[in-house]
Amino acid sequence: MLDLGIEKMALIGVVALIVIGPEKLPRVARTVGTLLGKAQRYVNDVKQEVNRSMELDELRKMKSTVEDAAREVEHSIHSEANAIEKSFKDIESESASSEVTPVFPEYKHPRKNWRLKQGATPQWYKSRNGVRTKALSGAARVARFRPHKIN
């Protein structure tokens, strides 16, 4: 842009003071300042609009690539599903021609007494590792953890 240093700004100020005069100079400076501010806002708005349009174009491109990938995946899933369905129909037609009845396993009772609760962890493991197996009452818990007096 323009290379305006302090010396050039001072020279412009002195020339403006001589040409415009000391009475009108503040009003002209305010007007020039507001016009420059409006110009900067307009330039910033144009830049933002250009950036938005570029981002929108990028998003549209990204959307189209994602949609294409989704269509390809959907097509491959449909083709695989059709192939599997066709293989099931072939197997079904072969089994229908041979008339084989399916054999189901006989029901076997689990031999579990529902009245007895059995824990998953063995009792010997709990006793070896110091796991509590019985619930303590409130008074017993207080007595257990109460510090003892040393005489």
Task: Please give the structural blueprint.
Layout: H1 6-20, H2 25-98, H3 123-129, H4 138-145
Task: Describe the structure concisely.
InterPro entries: TatA/B/E, TatB. 69% of the residues lie in helices and 0% in strands.
Question: Helix count?
Answer: 4
Mean pLDDT: 84
Give the number of DSSP strands: 0
The shape is flat
Instruction: Return Rg in Å.
Output: 45 Å
Write the element-wise H/E pattern from the N-terminal end onward. Answer: HHHH
Weakly predicted, low-confidence segments: none
Structural class: mainly alpha
The fraction of residues assigned to DSSP E strands is: under 5%
Largest sheet: none
Helix percentage range: 55-70%
End-to-end distance, in Å? 92 Å
As an assembly, this protein is: single chain
Subcellular location: Cell membrane; Membrane
Main location: membrane
InterPro entries: TatA/B/E, TatB
Family: Belongs to the TatB family.
List keywords for this structure.
151 residues, 0% strand, mainly alpha
